[in-house]
From TrEMBL:
Gene Ontology biological process: rRNA processing
Keyword set includes DNA repair: no
Lineage of origin: Eukaryota, Fungi, Dikarya, Ascomycota, Pezizomycotina
Protein name: rRNA-processing protein FCF1
Pfam families listed in its UniProt record: Fcf1
GO CC terms in record: small-subunit processome
Length: 97
């Protein structure tokens, strides 16, 4: 099922430059996530800061502009985002466990 089918709406996947930079730093364990983030179907959001963690960048971005739905399996990031009113979250469940 695609994201548009799930949301019943047109959506444009976006990724911040900080997220891509952090995935590169995390190394081979995250190569699949990096490959997905670099997909040409994802729009890249330029960051006006430097040296920020991807989590902080995402929280700042959605706090300033609340038009984003955030998809993440990162528990700590989800907890931070729950403190920002009106930010919808989506996460994938691992049903094999």
């Amino acid at each position: 099922m695609g994201l548009m089918d799930l949301l019943l709406a047109k959506c444009t996947p976006v990724v911040t430059e900080c997220t891509i930079a952090e995935l590169v730093k995390l190394g081979p364990k995250f190569h699949l996530a990096l490959r997905l983030a670099k997909d040409e179907r994802f729009e890249r959001l330029k960051c006006s800061h430097s040296g920020t963690y991807a989590d902080d960048c995402i929280v700042t971005t959605v706090t300033k502009n609340r038009c984003y739905l955030v998809g993440t399996n990162d528990r700590a990031l989800r907890q931070k985002l729950r403190r920002v009113p009106g930010v919808p979250l989506i996460a994938a469940l691992d049903l094999t466990r």
